[in-house]
Design a protein that fits this description.
The chain is of the alpha+beta class. The chain has 3 helices and 6 strands.
């Protein structure tokens, strides 16, 4: 599977709120960081899954729309709009830097 296919599948699963398909794309030791202060928000796959389940439950109309994607070695920079978070109709812009290892997502840095 190519890096582009991994990200495409992740985005499709995210927009379909398909937690099983989505989590199959993450390593067991996945880390998610807040870019602004470099703080560790999520420390493993279980925490990641719990975070997405809660987000999906609170956001039935959640949707991400890719504006631009840049592929650079094992990194993917996704500039996107996210709407429907926690019931909000507001479209918010964010950037997510995905790091891929062994055909799975091992790290995400989120810029909001």
């Amino acid at each position: 599977m190519t890096i582009q296919e991994i990200i495409d599948l992740q985005m499709l699963a995210f927009n379909n709120r398909d937690i099983k398909s989505m989590m199959s794309l993450y390593t067991d030791d996945t880390k998610i960081y807040n870019f602004s202060d470099h703080s560790l928000a999520i420390n493993n796959k279980k925490e990641c899954e719990e975070m997405f389940i809660k987000l999906f439950e609170q956001s039935p109309d959640l949707n991400a729309e890719i504006i631009k994607t840049i592929f650079f070695y094992n990194k993917v920079i996704v500039h996107e709009y996210v709407s429907g978070r926690s019931g909000s109709n507001e479209k918010k812009e964010q950037v997510v830097v995905f790091e891929i290892e062994g055909q799975k997502i091992s790290r995400m840095d989120i810029i909001r």
